Amino acid sequence: MARLIAYNKKVKMEPIEDYKMVIYGNGKLVTLERNPVAEIAGYRKTGNFAHWSALIGHFDDGNGLYQVPVLLYRPKAGAALERIR
Fold it and tell me: How far apart are the C-alpha atoms of 3 and 25, rounded to whole Å?
């Protein structure tokens, strides 16, 4: 699904900025999350955008935001990271 959206010319990806690397599962899972912000691409929400993926896009027609969550998995120490989601 994310791949189809990414190639849509009416979608703009936001710059990857103001994020942190988050490690889960005793160091076996890693992801990039945006630091909490009140606004992304002109969109505001009650509270903030906390725990959103660092990969965020918005539709040119103003119909909203979407995020592309990516989790990487390391099956054992020293192994390469594998994309699981």
Answer: 27
For 65, the domain range is: 2-83
Residues forming beta bridges with residue 22, ordered by sequence position: 31
Dist CA 43 CA 9 (whole Å) = 20
Task: Write the CA distances from 57 to 10, 14, 24, 25, 28, integer angstroms.
Answer: 10, 5, 25, 28, 27
- The span from the CA of 56 to the CA of 34, in Å, is 9
Q: How does DSSP classify residue 53? A: B
Domains of the chain: total: 1
Q: What pLDDT digit, counting tens, does each position of 9-53 carry?
A: 688 888 888 899 999 998 899 999 999 888 888 888 777 888 889
Within 13 A of 29's CA, how many CA atoms are on the CB side?
A: 8
- Nearest partner of 2 among 56, 44, 46, judged by Cα: 56
